[in-house]
Amino acid sequence: MRAMAIDYGDAHTGVAISDLTGLVAGHTETVHSRKQEEVLRRLGELIGEYGVTELALGWPKNMDGSLGPRAEKAEAFAKELEKTFGLPVKLWDERRTTVDAHNILASAGKNAKKRKKTVDAVAAALILEGYLTYRREGR
């Protein structure tokens, strides 16, 4: 079973897809679009190409665990994903993933301009790794 993690944003959406074993992230990319229909189109292509069977969507809670406008936007997008693709969507707490992604890229020597192009894909990979670990542990 392949899983896809999505870090949905206003202008950039990070995507990470597990390998065939469902153990690690295999493919990552960033969809650069502000249009939801364009993001859905590309996600649909990837779901078909890789045979994705489940989705984990980043759920940007506030640091105190409360839900703000960004989390509500993610919840609405989760419903759209389920309606469009008919796949289960797990909302995944993504607090700090973008910060961690920036730190990973900075420690790899990427300057701020280069980090901007890939940070969303790295954040999606972090979401995916957390989700896959959760799934392996049978929670």
Explain the overall architecture:
The chain has 139 residues and is an alpha/beta fold. It has a single domain (2-136), classed as YqgF/RNase H-like domain (Nucleotidyltransferase, domain 5, 2-Layer Sandwich). It is 49% helix and 24% strand. It contains 4 helices and 5 strands. The protein has helices at residues 36-50, 69-85, 97-107, 112-136, and strands at residues 2-7, 12-18, 25-32, 52-59, 89-93. A 5-stranded mixed beta sheet has the order 3-2-1-4-5, with helices on both faces. Helix 3 packs across helix 4. The longest helix has 25 residues, at 112-136. The chain is globular, with a radius of gyration of 14 Å.
Features:
Nucleotidyltransferase, domain 5, 5-stranded mixed sheet, alpha/beta, single chain
Brief rundown of the structure:
The protein is 49% helix and 24% strand.
- Separate helix tally: 4
Output the strand order for the largest sheet. 3-2-1-4-5
Helix/strand class: alpha/beta
Share of helix, binned: 40-55%
Number of domains: 1
Helix-strand topology string: EEEHEHEHH
Would you report the number of β strands?
A: 5
CATH architecture: 2-Layer Sandwich
Largest sheet: 5 strands, mixed
Average of pLDDT? 89
